[in-house]
Amino acid sequence: MSDIEAIVLEPCEPGQLTPDELRALFLFEKLSDDQLQWIAEHGCTMRVPAGKYVLREGDPAEKFFMLLSGTIQLTRRVGGDEVETNRTEQRGVYMGATQAYLRDDGVQQLYMGSMRALDDCEFYVLEARDFGLMIREWFPMGMHLLEGLAMGMRNSQAAISERQRLTALGSLTAGLMHELNNPAAAASRATGALRQRVAGMRHKLGMLAHGKVDPARLDALVELQEEVIERAAKAPALTAMQAADLEDQLGDWMDEHNITGGWDLAPVFAQAGLDTDCLNDIERKVGDAKLLDQAAHWLGYALETEQLMSDIEDATSRVSSLVTAAKQYSQMDRAAHQWIDVHSGLDSTLVMLTHKLGEGIKVVKDYDRHLPQIPAHPAELNQVWTNLIDNAVQAMKGVGTLTIKTYQEKERLIVSIGDSGPGVPDDLKKRVFEPFFTTKPVGEGTGLGLDISYRIVVNRHGGDISLTSEPGDTRFLVRLPLTEPSST
């Protein structure tokens, strides 16, 4: 389509249709003679040449149009494109100020789509105020029903949308608290154990010193401790079978050398990756069989202390990462609109939904890290990612593969969120973005998640969102512009 231009139409010509001619239009066929006379006096005919727009989506809804002759095309704006929704030449079809009967609640009525004449067309036109007055005075009961339906749906949608946001917030908060509790509890347990090990180290060190150990040998033991800790830090990870075999070997060695509680010490040395050659080296450096038992326990405490400190560091790092992800997800203390790397929002959303993913869902991230930043409302996009990922997890019933892919297609950045679930039937694909439509059981879905996502992507970002689905491969494709939209 060409750039939007101001619509300049030929003026109406009053008195062109008689009451009998108006009765031939299906919308007016049941009206009385007096009512048809009133419409004939207040309406007019308008001719629009081929190729001209009759009305534009988003403009004030000031007129009610009925097609008398010609062919029209109806379109809706999706991102930067206009998508045809209907094409007809049926006499009597209507469009324009179709909700002019609603009470003036401060919300300006706008055209819901655009209409263009594909060939020379003629319309019968009523002013919106006249059409609204006609409906309100002639059909008071019907008007109240229609008005109640429109207002009720609007209020219900607002209330349910708000409730859905609160429910989602509660779910995310509960999940975040669960994720925070695990590392916090681990750090607390490790701290308690660390206190016991440090006390044990002090006790063993006192026993070594009380045993009148030669100062030079004591220095050698301290150096040996540092060597053992350094060796443990560089030790490769062992499989469960390798660790079990090594524990058996270390336990046998300790039994042969009269180390008390050898089977308790063996797992500690095995976890640190120390073998019998290392124990032989320890024995040689201690140089006194009587001190070997105390030295082995002292080194065991040192190894456990290092491991516990590593556990505390990992736990606190995990807490810090979760807090950072929560701040990134909520966009706290950040501008509402900014240039963003879309991957940071996707990653923070995955962190926030970790409790829902569970162990049965494999997450595959296929990111194009060379994609440019895009202008967006990141907090709103995170809501889109949350809805799409949550839908995918529910579709797979907790078992399957979640695939998130990003790539560029012409002037659009594409985010694909796919699942390996059963898919969406063909007859339901076109309805998934409708308000209140849901395939979930009663009480599990409001039917607003995808509708909200659609409005955020299309209306707020000038993008597009679509669905492709077959059994084992369902994908939502979110297309976002790489540049600021030319108009808001």
Overview of this structure, please?
The protein has a 5-stranded antiparallel β-sheet. Strands 11-13-14-16-15 form a 5-stranded mixed β-sheet. It has a 4-stranded antiparallel β-sheet with strand order 3-8-5-6, with no helix packed on it. It is built from 14 helices and 16 strands. Helix 3 packs across helix 4, helix 4 packs antiparallel against helix 9 and helix 5 crosses helix 9. The protein has 3 domains: 13-138, Sandwich (Jelly Rolls), CATH 2.60.120.10; 174-322, no CATH class; 336-481, Heat Shock Protein 90, CATH 3.30.565. Strand 13 (400-409) and strand 14 (412-419) form a beta hairpin. The protein is rod-shaped. With 488 residues, it is of the alpha+beta class. The longest helix has 71 residues, at 140-210.
Q: Helices, strands, pairings?
A:
Elements: E1 13-14, H1 19-23, H2 33-42, E2 44-48, E3 53-55, E4 63-69, E5 72-78, E6 81-88, E7 94-96, E8 114-117, E9 121-127, H3 128-138, H4 140-210, H5 215-234, H6 240-256, H7 262-271, H8 276-286, H9 289-330, E10 338-340, H10 342-352, H11 354-357, E11 361-366, E12 374-376, H12 378-396, E13 400-409, E14 412-419, H13 426-429, H14 449-460, E15 464-470, E16 473-481
Q: What is the residue-averaged pLDDT? A: 78
Residue share in helix = 40-55%
Shape: rod-shaped
Lateral arrangement of strands in the main beta sheet: 1-2-9-4-7
Number of helices: 14
| Terminus-to-terminus distance | 18 Å
Helix/strand class: alpha+beta
Backbone CA Rg:
37 Å
Order of helices and strands: EHHEEEEEEEEHHHHHHHEHHEEHEEHHEE
